[in-house]
């Protein structure tokens, strides 16, 4: 082998020393390259794989899918409903549903639980942040029907349960005293007089009814007004009762504090 290489080396140096030697070497090199290229191209090519044939269903129909969304399956060509790309035939190697198989030991280690597929309502706990408030339709309020001073508050703090009709406030009012005196004077005037109208067309009973209505607008109940008439003596104090049963959730005034018409004193919630 070494002798052959030495011979080829000597021949190459001899050819290179001749004037025509360079052209000869270029020709020989080109011939060798052409022979190598021809050898590769003439080599037998492997047969194309036939695994890429479209998958057929049991009825012989070809299934089509989307290259971007393989979950899309259609028995006929068309467009993907998600990306609007053309559907392509499903290859045999890609047909069918993908499944995973685990041994019983692996299932136990991974704590996998399975249930039969069924149609039912799904229950899920949702944690939310909110505000709990009272039902507005079940609230009762105690307000001042007349200006005055709160001489007594019978409920001292919130959270106390009261029944409808329980006494809540003992209020002092000069206006209330004046209205009671007016009613008593009207009763004295109507006592023993006829029901014939006066020169102004007003009967004594009309005066009593008007005074009674005026007093009623200041807060006393019908029973309290009857008690005043029977007693025959005015009082500057009035007891206010609970309008509904429930829990006192707000106490807005203090004992001894003066209130104006419409001021809220208590809020009662029917919990």
Features:
271 residues; alpha+beta; OB fold (Dihydrolipoamide Acetyltransferase, E2P); four-stranded antiparallel sheet; 6 helices; 11 strands
Outline the structure in words.
The protein contains six helices and eleven strands. The protein is α+β, with helices and mostly antiparallel strands and 271 residues long. Among the domains are: 56-92; 136-269, RNA polymerase II/Efflux pump adaptor protein, barrel-sandwich hybrid domain (OB fold (Dihydrolipoamide Acetyltransferase, E2P)), CATH 2.40.50.100. It is rod-shaped. It starts with a helix and ends with a strand. Residues 43-54 have low confidence and may be disordered.
Q: What is the fold's blueprint, element by element?
A:
Blueprint: H1 2-17, H2 21-41, E1 64-65, E2 73-74, E3 88-89, H3 104-110, E4 139-143, E5 148-153, E6 161-162, E7 167-172, H4 174-190, H5 204-216, H6 222-231, E8 237-241, E9 246-251, E10 258-259, E11 264-269
Antiparallel strand pairs: 1-2, 1-3, 4-11, 5-7, 5-10, 6-9, 7-8, 9-11
Brief sketch in words of this structure:
The protein has 271 residues and is of the alpha+beta class. Helix content is 31%, strand content 16%.
Distance between the termini: 113 Å
Characterize the main sheet: 4 strands, antiparallel
Order of strands, main sheet, comes to 4-11-9-6
The CATH superfamily of the domain at 136-269 is RNA polymerase II/Efflux pump adaptor protein, barrel-sandwich hybrid domain
Total DSSP helices = 6
User: Count of DSSP E strands?
Assistant: 11
**What is the third-level CATH name, the topology of the domain at 136-269?**
OB fold (Dihydrolipoamide Acetyltransferase, E2P)
What string gives the helices and strands in order?
A: HHEEEHEEEEHHHEEEE
Q: Please state the second-level CATH architecture of the domain at 136-269.
A: Beta Barrel
What's the shape? rod-shaped
The top-level CATH class of the domain at 136-269 is: Mainly Beta
Structural class: alpha+beta
Beta-strand content bin: 15-25%
Give the rounded overall mean pLDDT.
81
Low-confidence stretches: 43-54
Assembly of the depicted chains: single chain
Share of residues in helices:
25-40%
Determine Rg (CA atoms, Å).
Answer: 54 Å
């Amino acid at each position: 082998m070494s002798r052959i290489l030495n011979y080829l080396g000597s021949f190459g140096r001899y050819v290179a020393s001749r004037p025509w030697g360079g052209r000869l070497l270029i020709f020989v090199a080109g011939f060798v390259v052409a022979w190598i290229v021809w050898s590769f191209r003439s080599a037998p090519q492997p047969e194309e794989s036939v695994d890429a044939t479209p998958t057929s269903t049991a009825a012989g129909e070809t299934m089509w899918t989307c290259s971007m969304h393989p979950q899309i399956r259609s028995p006929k060509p068309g467009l993907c409903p998600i990306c609007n790309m053309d559907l392509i035939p499903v290859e045999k190697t890609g047909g069918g549903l993908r499944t995973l198989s685990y041994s019983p030991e692996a299932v136990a280690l991974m704590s996998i639980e399975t249930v039969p597929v069924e149609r039912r309502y799904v229950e899920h706990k949702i944690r939310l942040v909110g505000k709990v408030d009272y039902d507005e339709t079940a609230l009762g309020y105690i307000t001042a029907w007349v200006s005055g001073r709160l001489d007594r508050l019978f409920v001292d703090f919130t959270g106390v349960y009261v029944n409808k009709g329980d006494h809540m406030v003992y209020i002092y009012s000069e206006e209330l005293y004046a209205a009671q005196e007016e009613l008593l004077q009207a009763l004295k005037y109507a006592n023993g007089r006829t029901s014939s109208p006066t020169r102004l067309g007003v009967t004594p009973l009309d005066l009593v009814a008007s005074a009674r209505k005026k007093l009623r607008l200041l807060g006393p109940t019908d029973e309290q007004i009857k008690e005043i008439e029977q007693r025959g003596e005015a009082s500057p104090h009035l007891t206010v009762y609970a309008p509904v049963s429930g829990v006192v959730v707000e106490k807005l005034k203090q004992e001894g504090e003066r209130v104006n018409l419409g001021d809220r004193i208590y809020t009662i919630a029917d919990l």
